[in-house]
Amino acid sequence: MSAYISLSYLDLAGASVFLILNAVFSYALRLNLERQLLFSSLRMVVQLLMVGLVLKAVFAASSAIVTLLIAVAMIMFAGREVWARQERRLSGIWGYGLGAGSMMFAGTIITVCALVTQIEPEPWWTPQFALPLFGMVLGNTMTGVSLGLDTLHGAVYRERTAIEAQLLLGRTRWEAVLPCVRRSLRSGFTPIINAMAATGVVSLPGMMTGQILSGVDPQEAVKYQILIMFLIGGATGLGVLGAVFASIWRLTDHRHRIRLDRMRASST
What we know:
This protein has 268 residues and is mainly α. It contains 11 helices and 2 strands, in the order H-H-H-H-E-H-H-H-H-H-H-H-E. It folds into 2 domains: 55 residues; 202 residues, no CATH class.
């Protein structure tokens, strides 16, 4: 017998009471976070309801072209989030394109490999499998890339004098910025490392919990979660490495000069 339990909108409203309570505490303590909490939660609800309707139509259509278009839209929104989270960012199209490109490269390779070699739906691009998997991989890669780039750009700007001194002493551009690169890579890798270390001991991941609540055997849910964590870890690593090294390539030139004119501060 399935353990699946249907939730009503009244159940969801009841769960939101605790979030509203946090907003009340924020107002009472003058944290000025209540609007952000309420707006973010409202935005989440609207986005998820819309996504539910869109995915229902996409699954019914079962079209490779529609699936591809949805994936492209996800990449564009993820690129916008990476761009917006950086205190200092590359100027022009590079500020948006570099983050989006690195996520697209890493997320696409990892997702396609998993669909073709491990999950093996028929056809391999079946939206019921491809889009949720790509969304999980892309979302976690986005966090790593945004942290890596934000750390890198901040470090390069703060330590520009030391970097220029290293260049004057004959160091190559890659040698001069190596400490900044290492720091930014550690920052980008930290979330997925922490997530993998805590999974199963501190927390039960959302996908695994959802499967168990819907009646799937726990051991099957565990196997899928392990697969997902491996995929997320691999995509995050590739995305962070690609974004950081591409950004360094852009912030320096073939004459081994640092090009801070190619970076600007966020206006927010």
